[in-house]
Amino acid sequence: MSKADIGLIGLAVMGENLVMNMAGKGFSVCVYNRTTGRITDFLGGRARGANITGAYTPDELADNLKTPRIIMLMVKAGKPVDDYIEDLIPRLSPGDIIIDGGNSHFTDTIRRTKYVESKGLLYIGTGVSGGEEGALKGPSIMPGGSPAAWPHVAPILQAIAAKVDGDIPCCDWVGNDGAGHFVKMVHNGIEYGDMQLICEAYFLMKEYLEMSADDMHVVFSEWNTGILDSYLIEITRDILAFKDEDGSPLVEKILDTAGQKGTGKWTSVAALDEGIPLTLIGEAVFARCLSALKKERVRAAGVLEGPGPSGKFTGDKKAFIEDIRQALFASKVVSYAQGFALMRAAAETYAWDLNYGGVALLWRGGCIIRSVFLSNIKEAFDRDPGLENLMLDPFFCGAIAKTQDGWRRVCAAALSGGVAIPALTSALTYYDGYRTARLPANLLQAQRDYFGAHTYERLDSPRGETFHTNWTGQGGTTPSTSYNA
User: Fold this and answer.
1) Hey, which residues are catalytic here?
2) What pTM was estimated for this model as a whole?
3) Residue 465 vs residues 449, 462, 479: alpha-carbon distances, Å
4) What distance in Å separates the CA atoms of residue 230 and residue 215, rounded to the nearest whole number?
5) Low-confidence ranges of the chain (pLDDT < 50)
């Protein structure tokens, strides 16, 4: 029996679909699953007739692979990945490659890369985005880890990835150790933000404008033909048109409590560690947390006073829908600006040489946040690879200038009408803060120095020179240590 090009461990939905994708692109695949019955079922079912073989032990898997052996793990993040690494190491030879294709935390991938390399092997931690359909038809793939592994795995990963602009694969080398999983984490954080922004647009139309699901379906259909054209707008359009068995909109029968798997939280924590104001994604994470407090919210709705959204709008509905579109677009710019700022900060911290235009290209197809919008981001970084903030690019600067009046009208109306839109409003606050040359942090520094002798800098002195004032006349002159986030 001829040996396989690649082995894959983990035959859940994503693993199965990736295997079918690989086989469909002409690669031979050997599969293993801890529950061996799944191997038999898979080989006798959808894999029948494909160039796919099964291995019922790790030894059999290793024996059935070409050298250097390439084994991809599609298992639950955390301890299962470490367990499989330990299980595979004694069965592999120097130069063999282990790929983790799950949603692992980037710090784990940094650790694992160093550990696996110490054993003479190579390691890749790669983000894979696109869900079940993407895995089968072409996902976005974001590999990082041991650079020496990339030439061996590139032909497979780039072949199975989504393609844009003709035949450009949405897969390229991201960077050393945890870079790939970090970029995937930021992708997921932006996904949280995009979803929350769309939900707030829906909420405004439903509660404030009292529009039906069918009416909103028409709006999202129109939006999906312009600058907002994206996978998430597309599926929102389809969801709003979907009817339950009784003919009513199914979406209105779904409980309003959202789940999460933690990658949005990881993104927010990483932003705090790097001192980057990732406000919109943070609000998107907290919005899910707030939604989970269903019983408390129901009680609070009968107790806490405030304006109700329904029946309050008396203006031009069509014009306000256009304002919502503008607010959604401008807020998306902020979300991506914050996400790319976080990647830039992390690249400096972890010595990654990230290609930001290349990252935008990776997200153009296959993944959950794929949109025409990303081509504008790629062009922005092509114009200026050292761009500090996406909003400073001429295209996005001009686009926000054209949309911000509608953005402000939406936020003002929502606040007055009692409609909770945390992501849209936090995006506007960030925009206004970022364009403010002098913020009130001077008073904050005075407060910190007053109660804790934390020192401050002066406008009329060089940066880095600190001062402490004895504000009460009763304190000392010894300053406290301090740090800047």
Assistant:
1) 184, 191
2) 0.93
3) 14, 6, 13
4) 19
5) none
